[in-house]
Amino acid sequence: MTDLRLLVPVSESVTLRNTVAYAIRHALERTDETEGAATIHFVYPLSERPTLDPKSEETTVADTLLDRVTVWTEEDIEDDAERVTIDTAVIGTEEYLFSPVDYANALVRYARTHDLDVAVFDPEFSPLGTTPLLPPLEAEVRKAGLDVEEAPVQRERRSPPLVRRGTVTQFLALFGVSYLFYLLLAGSLETYDLVTGAISASVVSVALWQVSLTSPVRPVRAGKQLGRLALYLPYLLWEIVKGSLHIAYVVLHPELPIDPKVVEFDAAVWSSLSITTFANSITLIPGTLTVDVSQRRFTVHALTPTTYEDLLEGSLERAVRFVFYGREATEIPTPRERMNDGDENT
């Protein structure tokens, strides 16, 4: 029985998500073969000069990225959590990392402290931005005695094809969603509605199954997300009711106590669907309006102090994370806790 102990350095990159998925997949396959356990340490090497401020901008970026990695690992592990242990850490906080040797020393020191024997690198790992660092860094880590592996992932296309190969599972998933949506709008289960709904869903599925659902459908994960979505909808409806009552109070108040404000913040949601859900939920609640979304940067117009305070307290964002990433993702800090000085614009 042999245990697998991996060190995975992380930085913001287009292939990071696939690298995390590869590390988890590799660990699960190894535990299947050896009946051992696996431990994966995701580490963020901090490249800034040491300061007395423990909550510097770079530290906040590191913590946010590691939170995202944790959510991804929980998605990929699913029901095999007992087989793989996940740890995250920010390293190099007490020194100034500049050269490949500096980074290699920090990584090797961490690996030896935690008894790790293999370093898996993201092919786009670049903690210094555009400065090429990976080849000399891998050489230095290998020279120090660690096994080095580069995750076999490809860089995502900048302009992916609109139409891709679809599967029967994706077709059936799109048909089911379209059919349920039609019946929900019809509000009836009469024979006419059942028949016309099936015809409409078939037309939609044939036309869009290679466009809408181009990612692999995982029935277990999709079922869990649908179950959490069923809990989210009543919560969203309650927030809409509360927002409506609040705006009605403001409108009827003799002094009209409004204080319009534009708030900008980075949301801790990462997939296109979760970002869209969060943006639309904000707009559906009276008193707030999503003005713009750029990647994860949200620009929201809030009508009163209560509405933007509620937004920054993060209950709605936490609920959206719960739908897409599970209960553990709700522990990520709120937008207010993540915001740096000057991020809130008025």
TrEMBL record:
Residues spanning the membrane: 167-185, 229-252, 267-289
InterPro entries xrefs: Cation_antiport_E
Cell compartment(s), UniProt: Cell membrane
GO CC terms in record: plasma membrane
Transmembrane keyword on record: yes
Source superkingdom: Archaea
UniProt-recorded Gene Ontology molecular function terms: monoatomic cation transmembrane transporter activity
Pfam family, one: MNHE
Primary residence: membrane
Protein name, UniProt field: Monovalent cation/H+ antiporter subunit E
Organism, scientific name: Halocatena pleomorpha
